[in-house]
Prior knowledge:
CATH class of the largest domain: Mainly Alpha
Number of strands: 7
Helix content: 25-40%
Distance between the termini: 65 Å
CATH architecture of the largest domain: Orthogonal Bundle
CATH superfamily of the largest domain: Alpha-helical ferredoxin
Number of domains: 2
Structural class: alpha+beta
Shape: elongated
Amino acid sequence: MTRKLKTGELELRVLRYNPEIDDAPHWEEYRVHYEPMDRVLDALHKVKWFEDGSLTFRRSCAHGICGSDAMVINGVNRLACKVLVKDLKHPITVEPLRGLPVEKDLLVNMEGFFDQFKKVMPYLVNDEPVPAGERLQSPEERERFDDTTKCILCAACTTSCPIFWSDGSYFGPAAIVNAHRFVFDSRDRAGDERLRILGQKAGAFKCRTTFNCTDACPRGIHVTRAIQEVKREVLDRSI
C-alpha cells in the first residue's frame, strides 16, 4: 500500500540511469521533507545526502549564475536552484536535459554543446591599435546587445529546441545568442565573419521560431528575437 504523504513532505520522481548497471533509464521515487522556501536543488541535496548518495547531478553556485544545474523539471527546462518546490505541481519529476548524452542520472555531457558555441567566435575581435584608455561606446551602443550578455550557458534554451533534438549539426540558440552579443558590439570587427558562419546551413536560418528557447531561458533573454535579428543582419549585409 502506498504511504500517504505527511504534511511538509513531497514526492520527488527522478529519472535515473547508470550506464554501468542499467540497460535503460528508469524512474525512482523519493519522499523528502521540505521547508516553504526550499528549491528543487534543496530536495535533490536531501536525497543525495540522506537517502541515496549515488544520485548524480551537476551544481555549483546555487544562485542562478553558473547555469550548472539546468534540468527538466515537471517537463520544463529550468534551473533547479531557482525553482521553489511550493510553486510546482506535485509529485515533482526531474529528468536530464534532452538532446545531450546522459553520463549518469541528471548529469549530461556538454562537450557537443560547447563545440557548437566555439564555432561562432564568441569573443571580441579587434585588431586596431590599442587605445590609451578603454574602447569606449555610447550607452545606446551598449544597449543594442545588452540582452544577450545575460547568457550563462546553461543549455536550457538549446536543449528545448526541437530542431536541435533532430539535427545535431545545428548551432543551437545559445551559440547564436552569444554570436549576437558580439555581432552588434560596436567595438568588434569580426561581425561579417560571424555572420558568414551563422548564414551556413547549420546556422540561424534553421530556427523555426517555436519560442521554446525564449520560454526556457532562466535569465529572461529574448532568445527568439535575437535569432531573428541575426537572420536579418545576414540578409541586410548580403552575407
